[in-house]
Amino acid sequence: MSRAVLVPELRKLASGRTGRQLVVLPPAGGGFLPYLGLAATLAEHGDVHAVRATGLAAGEEPDTDVPAMVSRCLAAIRGLPAAPAVLTGWSLGGVLAWHVAAHLAAHEGHRPAVVLLDSFARLSPDADLAAFTQSIVDGWPASLPEADRNRLRRTATAHVRAAAGHQVSVPYAGPVLLLACGDGPVPRQRADWERLSSRLRTEVVDGGHFGLLAEERLPAVAGHVDGFLHDVLGKEGSP
Q: pLDDT confidence of 4, banded at 50, 70, 90?
C-alpha cells in the first residue's frame, strides 16, 4: 500500500493587516486554485487561509460525505491564531462554510460572516452529475500530470456525489452573502437559503457557475464580496 504524502490541509494564501482570519473552503474537487484571484480582495480584511480537501495527494482517499468534509475543515481551522471572522466557499465550498459556521455558533458562540459563491442548499434532482464533474476537471491546468488528474477526477466524483446526496437543513443566524449566477435557478436557490437564514443578502452576477471566479468576472464578484465584508465587519473586525 502506498504511503500518503503529508501535505498541509491549511495553507496561507495572503496576509492582511487587521489581525482577522479569513478562510476559504474547498469546492468540489478539493483544491484552492479557484480562490487565488479573490484572495487579494479578501486580504483587505485579514489573513486569508485555504483548506485543502483530502484526496489530491498520493495515497489519500477523498471524503465521500459532507459531514466528513465539515469535520476535516473544523480540524484544519483549529490551527488558526483566532477563530475565523469570515468563511467563504464556492459551490460545495459554500455548503461547507455554512456548516462550519453553524457549528462554531452552536458550540463556541462565534458567528463568522459567510460568503456563498453560487452555492446551493440542495442540488436539483435533474442535475447532470457526470457533466458537472467533467467541468471541474476541465477547469484545471492542461499541464497537470496524469496521476494528479486521475486523483482530481476521483476526488471531484466523490464530492459531486456527496453534494447530490446532501441537503442543508441547519439554520444559521450570522450574516450571509449569497452571490448567485444569473444563468442559474436564482429564485429557487435564494428561497432555499432564505428558509435557513434571516440575515441573507443576495446579489446576482451575470454568467454561469463555472466561470464565476474567472478573471473577466472577478471585478464584479470582488466588488460584492468587499462591500458585504465592509458592512458586516465594520471597524471592529468581527460580525
A: very low
21: in domain: yes
Supply the range of the domain harboring residue 16. Answer: 10-230
Q: Domain count of the chain?
A: 1
Tell me, what CATH number does 38's domain have? 3.40.50.1820
Q: CA 207 to CA 181: how far, in whole Å? A: 6
Query: Is the residue at 156 inside a domain?
Result: yes
Across the range 20-32, mean pLDDT stands at 95
Residue 238 resides in a domain = no
User: pLDDT tens digits, residue range 163-173?
Assistant: 999 999 999 99
Residue 126 lies inside a defined structural domain of this protein: yes
